[in-house]
Amino acid sequence: MTANRQEPEGVLLLLKPSGMTAHDLVEWVRKQLRIKRVGHTGTLDPLASGLMLLCLGRATRLAEFLSDLDKVYRFEMVLGVSTSTQDAEGEVIRTAPTDAITEEKMRAVLEQFVGEIEQVPPMLSALHYQGKRLYELARKGIEVPRNPRRVRIYRLELLAFWEEKPKRALLEVHCSRGTYIRTLAADIGAALGCGAYQHFLVRLQVGPFRAEQALTLEEFSEAVKAGTWREHLIPSRDALPMFPAIALTRLEVRKVMNGMEAVIGTVWGHPHLQDGGFVRLYDPEGTFLGVGQTHRQGNLWVCQPRKVFLP
Q1: What is the pTM of this model?
Q2: Which residues are tagged catalytic?
Q3: Taking Cα atoms as reference points, which of 179, 192, 187, 182 lies closest to residue 76?
Q4: Which domains does the chain have, with CATH numbers?
């Protein structure tokens, strides 16, 4: 058996502490496990903490599907203060009175942000502009125009409101991929008329995966020393529970494994499938084969392989 075959494969749920970048966490896991193929499924600001999904070995090929998942965050806003970075790291650029800001007004304003909204990405983001990351330009004091992006807020809940100054609010948000929480906090502050910044941020959930399932770095390090860390590794076959599972026939397996489309059934036989939707593929013995994408052709479902895991 080759060294590559012995490489661990699956998804690891860890709790990133504040002060560590996503890249730092990936490098830390690489050193802990002494492996090379480790990747994350979406950055989390250095000041932020909470759930991160790391893909090991061949499971790195699933990262694109995991990065598309919705997220749930909890964050605190400080009202009446705006900063250059929209969070606690930046310089104060504006202050405003908050005497008129009440819990009732806050709740009314939050309703405006539920649904599809537009955000202008912050300069401190990983987006590209003419071949450079925005945060690289920001560190040089350069600001460039950014186009608004559409994101979706499924739920925005006020958990607590503190009247003592500086007034603060604790919120929880369920949002689509690409939502900038610091920008959401600043935009809510602007709608209130007093400005605001994100004081802290913790990620509670990514798709179906919750922070309660994750290990702290200390717990993971202890599990590595004890040789039990693999017990916490989600196998590739179980890492995409949001996609419907399809059991292929042997003929369909041969086609899919050779990169060919395969008819996998009728529309009536698979009413839960979606045109253009992703599915998990398994052989008759239940071995995970990868991810396919379904398309409707008349009354038939046709599956095109997207990520194939060779035995």
Answers
A1: 0.90
A2: 45
A3: 182
A4: 3-69+208-238 (3.30.2350.10), 71-206 (3.30.2350.10), 245-308 (2.30.130.10)
